[in-house]
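Annotated sample (chain length 175).
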Amino acid sequence: MWIFGYGSLIWNPGFPFVSRQPARIEGWVRRFWQGSTDHRGLPGAPGRVVTLTRSPGAGCMGMAYQCAGKEAENILKVLDIREKGGYHREDVRLIFQDGSATDGIVYMAGPDNSDYLGEASTSDIAAQVNSARGPSGPNSEYVRQLANALRSMGADEPHLYEVEQMLADEVAEEA
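Output written by the structure step:
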């Protein structure tokens, strides 16, 4: 079984795996359109975390984790709890850097869940992220960790890097 991570699973999978390697999925982009009231925000003051949205011709870079078959059921139980805030499983085709491919599972959240926040301007996203904090820490930390992880993989992520830069600008203005 392969699990595809495109958010916090990249740097914090939280489950055992046999191997991992960068991969991408085609036809999807990462956006800060999902609310988080259980990790990076609170009920009534949600943070913003990433989900996937369809975008023909685009691709989303992330980390693919190969999991042992005997562990698959337990790993999915753990992830179902971790991703309970509006995410559901989807089957995807994972494409590795060497051009090989395999089937995998990804958790994504769409507009049909109560925590979905939807599209917003980059400045509104950054302002919400800057003010949000939850049990897993500041929402801004999530953005920085995701940006660092993707930058180290050589991923081109204009939406993410723009949000990251706006957060850095807000911190500089506050100083």
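Annotation: Residues 2-174 form a domain with the Hypothetical upf0131 protein ytfp fold (CATH 3.10.490.10).
Annotation: The first strand starts at residue 2 and ends at 5.
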